[in-house]
Structure formats: C-alpha cells, structure tokens
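Researcher: Next entry in the queue.
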Amino acid sequence: MDTEPSDAPAAIYPGWVMLNHHGLGRRHCFPADANNTVASCLSSAGKRIHASFRLAAPPGNSALFLDWPDVRDIDQLQPTEPSPCVGEKAASVVYAEGARWDEVYQWWETDSVVLIGDQFLCWGDYFRGLLLCDAFDLDEPVLQYVHLPLERNQGRPHSDLRRPFKNARNIGTTAGCAVRFVSVDRRRCCCGLLESSCPRSRFSFTVTTWTLNMDSLTWSRDGVLHSDELWALPGHEGLPRVTPEFPVLNMDDADAVCLMVRHYDVDASRIWMIKVDTRSKTLLSLVPYNSARYKPMNDDDEDDVLPSWLSDESEDHFDGIGFIRSEVSNYL
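Model: Structure for this entry, 332 residues:
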C-alpha cells in the first residue's frame, strides 16, 4: 500500500482506542478530524481508495472511515463475531461445577472474542459465560466453560431480552493478560419492587468489576460503584442521572471503566463518555461523545451532499452497538 506524503508532524496516538462498532464509507469524504492518518491505495479498477482513522484517547470514541469512489451512500462496515471453533477438529468442552451441556450446545451466542496474551482465546456470551481455549492445542482442542459471576440464566432468551445484557456487560484483558468482566446492573428499591415499578429506583444501578483466576477459573470481585456514589462525584454535576451503558474495560488501568451516558430530549439527544475508577470511586475523565462528522475532500464536487444526520451538529448520533477495544493506534 502506498501512502500520500504529509508535511504534518508525527502525531502521538493513545496506547489503545475505543472504535465505533461500525465504520463509515462514502464517496469523496473523510472525517474532519482524521488525525493525519489518511492512507491510500489503488483498487483493481485503478481508482484510488482512502482510509483514515479518527482517534481519541479513551473515554473518547474513535472511528474508521473509508473513501470509496464507487460508493455514494453510507455503507456500514460491521465485523462479525466468530463462533467457537478450533482448527478442523471438534473441540471437547469441560464444564464448570453445576454447568449444563445445553448451555453451550443449544443456547450459546457469541457476543465478543478476546485474545488472552499470545496463547489463549476467549469467547464471551454476556447472558451465560466464557469459553476459553489454548489456540495452539490443535491436536486435542478443549474448550473450558466458565460461568459469569452473576445469577445463572437458563434457556434461550428472546433477542429483546439479550439486548440489555449487550448494553450493560463487557469482557476484556489488561496489560497483565488478566481476564476481566464488568457489568452494569439495575438495583431493586428498598421497598422490594423491581426497578421498573418504583420511581425511586428507576435509574439506580451498580457498576461491578471482576477478575478471573486462570489457574482455578474462579472470579474475584474487584470494585463496586453504586449510582449514588457516581452521581455525587466531583465533575458529574452537569450530567443526567441515568443508568450508564456500554461499559468498556480500560486496557492499561485495571480499575478503570469507560461508560456512555445518554440524555434523550424531544428536540435532540446528547451523549457523554466518562471514565471511572471503581475501586477508588473517582471520576477520571469526562468528554462529549464524538459523532461521525464528514467534510468533502473536494469542496467543488456537487455530488458530495451529505445526509442531514452526518452534517447536523445539533444532535448526537450513536449506532447503539457499542465499541471495540483496539491497539491499532500503536501501528500508525
């Protein structure tokens, strides 16, 4: 791939980023804040294709943009999560105590895949648990099933029931290759009613983090942050008191979690990204969510008419899927 020369000074990128789950492609356009990451190559038809990243240090969100000459409408570039499979052999499954075989063979749905160090793969089902495998053990592959450290669920849930789990849970690893899990859970009110039944607990929640011991395959709880504690932190005064969503575990700080806070209004919606320390109970960072904004590569091109949701800055737009933790910034 050839790259276009740039006179801009070398940029300093964050050690890891939170990529929007959807990339965006459009003819003759690139992000207004591409951080000098624009690269290009020629397609088989001889047309030049541009790729660029908009990068931000977490809790800020980052995105991938493509300029495709033959594309005039927005194309979403959504990666797929592979199902657990090792080589060409069927892997045997080792269950944790109390687990049922149908939890994997009948009910399993992969929500995320995480690389643990340079050897192990981890598939996560946010409704059930994790499947761990030694990626180099191709002769006799074994999948180790580990429950999530929460109430166990049976049966196959309806898609509408799974969505809250996708919005409220995440797995990841830290620099020390430890497997970690975070969950944002609604709380019951003191009167015992469900959160949807009591006005006092409508947005009450806890943010809890755990670490998996790879030797014993048991979970240890690291930190718990209650909604009242978060709302009382310095810096949170101007944010809405709602349940945060789409938690992302920090890759270089074992106690830090990034979260999305959304406020819905009749005229517009606003989104913020925050980073909190669940152990010390501190608000580490707060930034506005960066919606996808384009600018034409050629101001004279009359065909570069952007949809209103891409050019209108009066409202924040989010695809509702979450973020991908990535160290792509280390290779630019």
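Model: The radius of gyration is 22 Å.
Researcher: Noted, moving on.
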